[in-house]
Amino acid sequence: MSTDNDTDSGSNSCKAPDSDGEVADDIAIVAFERKMDTAEEIVDGIGDRYESVEILAYHGDVFEEHWGEYDCFVGLMASGIAMRKTAHLLDDKWDDPAICVVDEELTWAIPITGGHHGANQVADDLARMGAVPAMTTASEAAGKRGVEKQAKALDAHVVNGDSTVATNLAVLDDELGPVERLDGPRAVLVDDDVSVLKRNGDDGVVLGCGSVAGTDVEQFHAAWDSALDAADCDREDVEFVATGTRKADEAGMLEAAEEWGLGVVAFEKETLTEFEGPSPSRSKELIGWPGVAESSAIAGGREHELLAEKARYDEAVTVAVGR
Q1: Which SUPFAM superfamilies did the record assign (predicted)?
Q2: Is residue 287 part of a domain?
Q3: Are residues 213 and 284 in the same domain?
Q4: What is the β-pairing status of strands 197-199 and 306-313?
């Protein structure tokens, strides 16, 4: 049984645009017959987040039979079973499908291979259903955002996956700094400890956003919808939400973006100053920061263009649209 959210999902290959990154588009839930009701619950609970979700009945060779057809297997079973049945299939972490196991009561979601290649993503999504994501990858365990997760927030993928060993260590030591952006046409020469991110799509818009402290999720959603309407765009057009580092921990914005399936990218003051928007900014006068909404929308857009100037909604959220 499957649910398809994309007419092109029938190819069923390990085709996530970043096989060196963490995105899983096509997943398979492997379940014993007695657990099929729970498998159906998982489809209902998280299926809208994937291009396709298929349920496979467990038998001894099910993983081997379907290896390479999906970006991530969700094993509705004990972790030991999944480990024993897939250990001999594992070859290269950049190419192998991810594996996440979950118990029948949906208490724990445990990535066992490919944490940064889809398993952590699935575990995070299962948390919406009450499961506790038990992640052991170093950056997540430390509560920090690894390079692969930063790539996802930018709707991008890591081109040179082996580099993330060094760059994620730098993340743990707070030494990596923000993602640097290079617009082409250019040629770039990098060492093995530099992760190169490439954006997945050719178009799309960026929501530049600022807010007052304590703004709730509904206010963000209403403001974003209004801004998109004004720009003649839809939610599906949004690549990510952009803001400034001083607003990066705004809980309502982070939760609102999560509910829309978007990442949040926070730009440093220097970057925002480089891409300062045309509208006057009170924050520039008071604290020396350019207006966050317009400058982050311009900085985040691939064309560095402002599609819609900033507007303030509900006296709480300021939004601009960039491309």
Answers
A1: CbiG N-terminal domain-like (SSF159672), CobE/GbiG C-terminal domain-like (SSF159664)
A2: yes
A3: yes
A4: unpaired
